Amino acid sequence: MSGVLAARPPPPPGRRPWLRPLWSGVAAAFRSGQMFFGKNKVMMVALGRSPSDEYRDNLHQVSKKLRGEVGLLFTNRTKEEVNDWFTKFTEMDYARAGNKAAFTVSLDPGPLEQFPHSMEPQLRQLGLPTALRKGVVTLLSDHEVCKEGDVLTPEQARVLKLFGYEMAEFRVTVKYMWDAQSGRFQQVGADDLPESAEESSEESGDDDDDDDDI
To answer: What whole-number distance in Å separates Cα of residue 68 and Cα of residue 200?
Structure first.
């Protein structure tokens, strides 16, 4: 079984339950293997940080690359098969605070019958000019949620999700490969990971507590 170190676009800070459905497509495609997306330091200890304590030959090289937002995939598939699958894999998702708006979104005035009347105060808090008209949530005037290229605020991101606008593209990039039979470790993609595991840990802060193992 070979191990592949894969990286994904870094998520926003905070809790990340949204990762599970996005990673589920990857997990389903590689159900015969194992995928881990957890605390980097824990995975480093499991693999071994040096030649003297590594679990298998050259796994300490994998540990050195556990920086930033990365995961491990263990599979019997060939490098070519794995690369080909991930090159084609993409999932659309809702943009989050800090992401850039992919396009301009404007809302026309009128009834918003998709929302229950109890949500009207929440929509108003998000900046929408709403009111209840005969028990129906109604947008009172034109409202521009965002312009293309805007760095989204939490309120804008929430409104976009409520109205079903997906702007984010979820991809996984294969960075390195380790072969269990030969112990060979090789770079597959560009090394654009953070400089050190320590820096990555400090930057992620509380995020590590919410990392998912798949």
So the answer is: 5
pLDDT tens-digit map of 158-174: 999 999 999 988 888 89
Domain that holds residue 136: 105-162
Considering its fold, how many domains does the chain have in total?
A: 2
Q: Which CATH number belongs to the domain containing residue 9 in this structure? A: 3.30.70.1730
- Angle (nearest 5°) at CA 123 between 122 and 129: 135
- Residue 41: Cβ-neighbour burial (10 angstroms; 0-12, 13-18, 19+): middle
- For 26, phi and psi rounded to 5 degrees? -70, -45
69 in the same domain as 14: yes
The verdict on 114 and 153 lying in the same domain is: yes
* Secondary structure class of 9 (helix, strand, coil): coil
Q: How far apart are CA 84 and CA 72, in angstroms?
A: 17
The model's pTM is 0.62
Burial of 119 (0-12, 13-18, 19+ CB in 10 A): middle
Distances (CA, A) of 130 to 106, 117, 118, 144, 181: 14, 11, 12, 13, 63
Strand partners, 130: 139
